Amino acid sequence: MAVSRMLKIQLVAHASIKDEVKVFLREAGAVEITDVSIDGFRGTADAEDAGRVSRLGEKTDAAIQFLEPYTRKPSFAERLSGGPVPVSAAEVAATLAAVDAEEISRRASDIDSTLRSSRDELSWSAALVRELEPWRSFTSPFESLSTTNYGVQFWTFPEKAVSSALEQADRTYPSIVHEEIARSGGRAFVGVITPRGEAHAIAELLKQAGGVRNAFESLTGTPQSIIERQRDRRTGLEAKIDEAGAAARDLARVRPSLQVLSDHFHERRGLLDVERHFFHTERTFLLEGWIRAVDRRRLERDLTKRWSDLEIITRPPREGEDPPVSLANRRAAQPFEFIMTLYGRPLYSEVDPTPLLAPFFILCFSICMSDAGYGFVLASLCALFLFKFKIRGGMRLLLQVLFAGALLTLFVGVATGGYFGLDTKLLPPALTRFILIDPLEEPMKMLNIAFLIGFVHILFGIGVRMAVNFRAHLWADAIFDDLGWIVFLIALGPLGFAYVLGGKVGAWVLFYCARVALGLTAVLFVAGARKERNKFIGAFKSLIKFYSITGYFSDILSYARLLALGLASAAIAVAINGIAEMVRGLPFYTGYLAAVVVLVLGHAFNLAVNVLGAFVHSARLQYLEFFNKFFTGGGREFRPFRSERRYTILRETGTKI
Prior knowledge:
By secondary structure, the chain is an alpha+beta fold.
């Protein structure tokens, strides 16, 4: 449970091998390169070359994204198990020579522009036709309607509002003339002849009366002729779109080559960008960064084996420096780094809580699920995705966490009699013999178990803080602020269980716990004032510190959610079974089909919802109730200079970079 020890590394070499060293460090993926710590240092790089490569990468990425809909869609299994395509350096060079990425990107951009403009025109044409349809009976060309003194406006009114709107317009402007052209779909379509001097005022009045003006003034021809022209135009636009789509499908055949080139351009850009961190002289260059201590010997060996004319210097971090954080956990705890990093990373000087949270997380998760049937289904699904489809990355870590939680859910479900919400009375004796507690029948026992888990979890968090203080040689803090409170809370535990929860505790246990608690109260009160010179202020702060008992109490109460989620999972499962039983009585055997549908969909929904709830609430207990006892966080992630290929993998190295 440690953060990897980091070393500051400096490398000095002859300028003639600079490019080779950059490529080597990228493939090694072990050094986070930073600015050189020289006063007044300002990094430089070939801005022109970097800009050119960056533009090529952006154009290639745009072409890849555009051509994606025109390539063969992979199956669900292919998408799950698919990964980067292995290529060799020779294949990359051959692709670079054979494929003109800039020309293909230009063609893709032209096709994209053609498709966009044609679809926009098609959409505009269809909207115009829909707008003109009700005006078909209007036989005068639009361009012939205007004179020097008069103009024509075309309006659409709700049928209920047209009469009152036109009457109001007649009273206000007696000089207008209007005619209803058609009625359709609850709307009335009206042409209005207006004097040019009053056209704007009339339009405002009709608009306020509920009318919508149709902008036909710029059109030429009759509505019927315009509709026919637009339909003919639609045929041409559709043909143009089909032609452009065929060209895109033809061009999509080179998309795999574009993916190879995209990775190549991004690799080149990375090599150019990293150089701005270097310090150059006429004949040498200097780079600086961070490396994990476990990687130092391997990197030094490989570098000196390949080049003899370079110097490597490593040293521990100095005070005031901010080393990056790399988590170093055993294989069993590594999946839980996913949960850890959702919250943050520890500071470089902190303990890594990943292996500490792992057992408590899966325990809380399994109690929230508390159904062996759901545990079996979840474990099976996780195993399928992990071992059959070989999911990678963060999703693999999440599936591994869920798989561990599902396995423990199997045991918790067996101990609580949870099997898809079935009544325990219907279970065979081979299963009922393992039932230790039924949460639906004995919720208080389950609540006490949840509180006990919370109590142990919180004491464990204080214990971690105590260990950290001991390691930092803060003996007084570890003994009085941590160990003393652990014993104090342990003494209060039986008292709280007896007098708050109504549990049964032996009188002699209560007697000794009360005496220990009173004695520790005095010790902790005196010890709490030790850091203050002013004894009155120290006594006051020490007294206030006892208020944290309420905080510990509320933290323990938070673990009641374990019971709540477990009961919710069981209750919903029982309800689903009840609904299935009711629909089973439908005639002509349809009831059996309906019952199967209810059971499958209902339990699938319940499983999905409860997995989400169990994950979120189990994580919450770690973040808020456990971490706040010892964890600060805020560490900076270790980001070594490495290849960042998205589509391909170098066959020589066999690693995705």
